[in-house]
Design brief:
The complex is a heterodimer of chains A (397) and B (386).
Chain A (H helix, E strand, L loop, with lengths): L1 H17 L5 H33 L6 E6 L12 H8 L6 E2 L2 E2 L1 E12 L6 E9 L3 H4 L4 E5 L8 E5 H6 L8 E4 L2 E10 L9 E4 H7 L8 E5 L6 H10 L5 E5 H45 L1 H9 L4 H31 L3 E6 L4 E6 L4 H28 L2 H6 L2
Parallel strand pairs in A: 5-10, 7-9
Antiparallel strand pairs in A: 1-11, 1-12, 2-3, 4-5, 4-11, 6-9, 7-10, 8-9, 13-14
Chain B lengths: L3 H10 L1 H34 L4 E6 L7 E2 L2 H6 L4 E9 L13 E4 L4 H4 L3 E2 L2 H9 L3 E5 H7 L6 E5 L11 E12 L9 E4 H7 L6 E2 L1 E6 L5 H11 L7 E5 H12 L2 H30 L1 H9 L4 H39 L10 H28 L2 H7 L1
Parallel strand pairs in B: 4-9, 6-8
Antiparallel strand pairs in B: 1-11, 1-12, 2-10, 3-4, 3-11, 5-8, 6-9, 7-8
The chains are: A alpha+beta (397), B alpha+beta (386).
Chain lengths: 397, 386
């Protein structure tokens, strides 16, 4: 019984699929419609995905960020030198030969022209202590060398160097009264530091008239589990007034704030365009059913049951949608993946360099969406095909 | 005109198909309206920027403060009519998610330089009389239900008082409306003297200056003069028109316009294929009817016109409905959801006109191929086909 049902399904479906070339135009319209939706939505979501990756890649749960209490970002924070020393000596901070693996930092922005538009953009300039290179252990110099302490030298992240004019090794830049020399380019596993320019904090403080003030402390902990004790020690210390967060959570928050808008827009575009593609698929499948009215009726008269007819129509629509989905995902991947650009991170009011990221989950999502469109687009025509009254259908021209 | 019933009955011939085609066009133009509004939200600052206003910021970056002593010196520059200053306060109201702009401004000059902020006379007087007074934008007032007389507590992140407290309280003196549709009313403005007093009276700096010049055509010249005043000082300045500033800020966010154009182009191309295909199907099914019409003496041009008219009718129906939905339902509803990201969210009138032009273009393009096929149809072939 069951095997009979399946052989019916196989028979009708194979006839359907073999006749697709006869409906080349409308089948192609369905495929293009679905592919278009998949391309556009993957492209939009790959922006959000790229921003998230740039902010969170390399952010570790065993690194703590210490800010002044009440600050949401480094930009608004402020810490005295004494406070940064107390933080570095707190329990749980990893110690290396040179002392605690902790870096007190200053975060400012400088104006540099974007390479793409030539207009000025807020590029983050971070003054760090020597241990910063141990705190961000993924960071490595790929061109030139590190800056020397005490000198007006800067190293630029790979992303910043590609987006903003003037960040080439050997170049001199002038901000205010100081001239700086670019001595190196670094990578950081695609993470946030790649959007930044780094220099010695001891040079940055006087250049920006910050006295002995810092804005944040990045401290590497013995392990992720050491965080609660570290946090408690700092928050109960009467000499301090600070907020302690894990680095990964700190940047995940910023990423949520930044990608929220992109996601809302992406969902809206996907749903609306998806509806459009479903209408196209419905048209195609209704036409397909109409073109085969007599064949379907003949099959039914021969004893084929409704189920296989429904399945066969659905199979055709799902196949067309799947082809569209795969083409769309492939186009999106080759056209957008890795496309490098930058945007404004509102939390720090500075530029974030990122690359569009077409990730496997996004591709899977695109394919699932395409199948969904195929399912909806095929369902109603399939039901109509199954309900065709055999006698009238046979009489139809 | 007498052919309208013919076109209408052709549309009704396959009701389901016509409905789906119309719906897919509705969707395209709904997206068009939405995306143009998004683009406009990012760039409207450029359009509404005062042509006669310059911004003076620190040369290194916007976050570096400028001495308050610069104000009178800028005012004395030839070509400058008026100067006002502002400080970005950056405080938190209840929760960091409730972000909105808070600026400390010079009470005597602020409203003179920003005539697009319309405040009732009595409320303006109240603001001038109350040191802790604040002018709240209409959109902000609606968002949190602020009313004149309310007290707003804000936690400072940048401006901590000398005693270590970070709580600032403001009294709502007035609510300002935007003079134009694109005016941003999502922020609040309080008095610099209140900020200065809270900081112990020794603040001494501002975030930026806004300058009104007598002749917009000489903006470049006046900018140069202002920057020349402070060249080689510890705080050098960078002066530019408000428009250039808004443009560079929009560029910082990214090329939203280009992304929107690409998406729209993709959407329209897809829908063109889909609609064109439907029209082609409709014509193919009617091949012998068209042949009959031609036999009856319908000219080639008339047959072409009939098919084009049908495709135009579908486009007008779908496109019109889509634009109406966008303006009437989707943009207001999503504008509310997006207002903390995009305070200015509406479809400008000229975009609406572009939309109408696109509808016509779309209708013609989708119908062109099937219409020419119908026009070239040879009666003998067509009648023989079935």
């Amino acid at each position: 019984m069951a095997s009979n049902w399946f052989s019916q399904v196989a028979a009708v479906t194979s006839v359907n699929l073999r006749t697709i070339p006869q409906r080349r135009g409308s089948s192609l319209a369905t495929i293009i419609g679905v592919a278009g939706v998949v391309i556009v939505s993957i492209a939009v979501f790959s922006i959000a995905e790229g921003v998230r990756h740039a902010l969170t890649a390399g952010a570790a749960s065993d690194t703590a960020v210490v800010l002044r209490s009440g600050s949401d970002s480094e930009m608004m924070s402020g810490l005295q030198r004494d406070a940064t020393r107390i933080i570095a000596e707190a329990p749980g901070v990893r110690r290396a030969a040179g002392g605690p693996v902790s870096s007190a930092e200053l975060y400012v922005i400088v104006d540099l022209p974007k390479r793409s538009t030539g207009t000025d953009a807020n590029v983050p300039l971070r003054g760090v202590q020597p241990a910063a290179f141990e705190v961000r252990d993924k960071l490595r110099i790929v061109e030139g060398r590190k800056f020397e302490p005490g000198r007006n030298e800067i190293v630029a992240g790979r992303g910043a160097a590609s987006q903003f004019a003037g960040l080439d090794v050997g170049n001199h830049l002038r901000w205010g009264e100081n001239e700086w020399t670019v001595v190196g380019i670094f990578e950081a596993g695609g993470g946030l530091p790649e959007s930044e320019i780094w220099c010695d904090v001891g040079v940055l403080q006087p250049a920006y008239r910050r006295g002995s003030n810092f804005q944040s402390v990045y401290a590497k902990l013995d392990s992720p589990e050491a965080f609660p004790a570290f946090k408690d020690a700092l928050t109960v210390d009467p000499r301090l007034d600070v907020k302690v967060v894990r680095e990964d959570e700190y940047y995940a928050d910023q990423s949520r704030a930044l990608t929220g808008l992109i996601r809302i827009i992406g969902v809206f575009i996907t749903v609306v365009m998806g509806a459009g593609a479903v209408f196209a698929a419905l048209n195609t499948m209704y036409a397909a059913v109409a073109a085969r009215t007599r064949e379907i009726a003949t099959l039914r008269a021969l004893g084929f049951r409704a189920g296989p007819v429904v399945v066969s129509v659905l199979a055709e629509s799902l196949l067309l949608a799947l082809v569209g989905g795969v083409i769309g995902a492939a186009v999106a991947f080759f056209a957008f993946d890795g496309f490098q650009t930058s945007t404004l991170n509102w939390s720090t009011f500075s530029q974030l360099s990122f690359a569009f990221a077409v990730t496997p989950p996004l591709i899977a999502l695109g394919i699932v969406c395409s199948l969904l469109m195929g399912l909806i687009g095929g369902l109603f025509p399939a039901i109509r095909a199954a309900r065709l009254p055999v006698a009238t259908a046979l009489r139809e021209l | 005109m007498k052919f309208l019933p013919l076109i209408w009955s052709n549309l009704k011939r396959k009701k389901v198909r016509t409905i789906f085609t119309v719906l897919s066009i509705v969707v395209s133009f709904l997206l068009f309206g939405f995306l143009v509004a998004v683009d406009n939200a990012f760039t409207s600052g450029v359009d509404v920027a005062g042509a006669d206003r310059l911004l003076v910021i620190h040369k290194v970056s916007l976050i570096q403060p400028l001495p308050i002593t610069y104000g009178p010196r800028i005012k004395a520059v030839p070509g400058v009519e008026a100067v006002t200053s502002a400080n970005w306060f950056g405080g938190v109201y209840q929760d960091p998610k409730n972000f909105f702009g808070q600026m400390a401004v010079d009470k005597d000059t602020f409203l003179d330089l920003y005539p697009e902020f319309v405040v009732p006379e009595a409320q303006k007087k109240a603001w001038l009389a109350d040191r802790a007074g604040v002018l709240v934008g209409r959109q902000l007032a609606d968002r949190f239900g602020f009313k004149v007389g309310d007290r707003i507590p804000i936690q400072a992140t940048i401006y901590r008082k000398p005693d270590g407290s970070s709580l600032w309280e403001f009294n709502v003196s007035g609510i300002y409306e935007g003079a134009e549709k694109g005016t941003d009313t999502s922020g609040m403005y309080f008095r610099y003297d209140y900020l200065n007093e809270g900081m112990g009276g020794r603040l001494g700096f501002v975030g930026w200056y806004t300058v009104r010049i007598a002749d917009p055509a000489r903006a470049a010249e006046v900018s140069k003069r202002i920057d020349g005043l402070f060249a080689n000082s510890p705080a050098e300045t960078k002066t530019n028109t408000e428009k250039a500033f808004a443009q560079s800020f929009a560029n910082q966010v990214g090329n939203v316009g280009a992304i929107v154009r690409w998406v729209l182009m993709a959407v329209f191309l897809i829908m063109l294929v889909v609609t064109g295909n439907t029209m082609a199907q409709a014509v193919r099914e009617r091949t012998n009817e068209l042949a009959v019409l031609k036999t009856l003496g319908f000219s080639r041009g008339l047959v072409l016109g009939l098919v084009l008219a049908e495709s135009l009718a579908i486009a007008l129906l779908g496109g019109g409905l889509g634009l109406l939905l966008a303006v009437g339902v989707v943009i207001p509803a999503l504008g509310k959801a997006l207002r903390s990201f995009l305070p200015v969210f509406f479809l400008p009138t000229n975009a609406l006109l572009t939309g109408v032009a696109l509808i016509l273009l779309f209708g013609l393009a989708a119908g062109l191929l099937p219409a020419t096929q119908a026009m070239r149809l040879r009666i003998v072939d067509a009648l023989r086909r079935v």
